[in-house]
Design goal:
Chain lengths: 103, 103
């Protein structure tokens, strides 16, 4: 994976160290997102077979409140946490709609 | 954090179990994102004091290739992984520009 580090020789050591940490965190994020979509795929299948709508505004409002609170604890911008969740939910609803279309 | 679960009594147990897993994963994502932004904040400070530009197209292209490959391993849509990285990078560049403006 690390073979494409173009011009690594010209990157200062401090910057390279930070980039290595970012790359490690990104790998963890990708694997967690994969696991999250496994869960939401099962939610989508459950909703499609139960006749429930793909989106659930009450659930989403609860998730947003919770993630904003968690973001404050983690010293992450709560606005960003909300934008992030909306970004993920948009993708989830797209999946749910395609599951529904195939059902 | 779990006190705002509106209408939990009416949510089928299977769906609630999946939602609980999603909530656990979301907490992990938020804390990882907070750590990632700590790293990129330090990158931004380094770039601002070194006179380097906020964005780095070569680095971003390498990150995109790497995350797409990781996504395939994790059975996550590579297109989504790329959209996700672009979403994060847009926020990082916004941070870098504001660090530069204050420098």
């Amino acid at each position: 994976m690390g073979s494409k580090r173009q011009g690594a020789a010209s990157v200062p050591a401090d910057l390279q160290s930070l980039r290595d940490s970012i790359d490690n965190i990104d790998a963890a994020l990708i694997y967690l997102l994969a696991e999250r979509f496994k869960c939401t795929r099962r939610v989508g299948e459950f909703k499609a077979t139960s006749g429930l709508p793909p989106g659930d505004p009450d659930r989403e409002a609860t998730q947003i409140d919770r993630l904003r609170a968690l973001a404050k604890t983690a010293k992450l911008d709560p606005e960003f946490a909300e934008k992030f969740l909306n970004f993920i939910i948009a993708e989830v609803i797209r999946h749910h709609e395609s599951i529904r279309a195939r059902a």
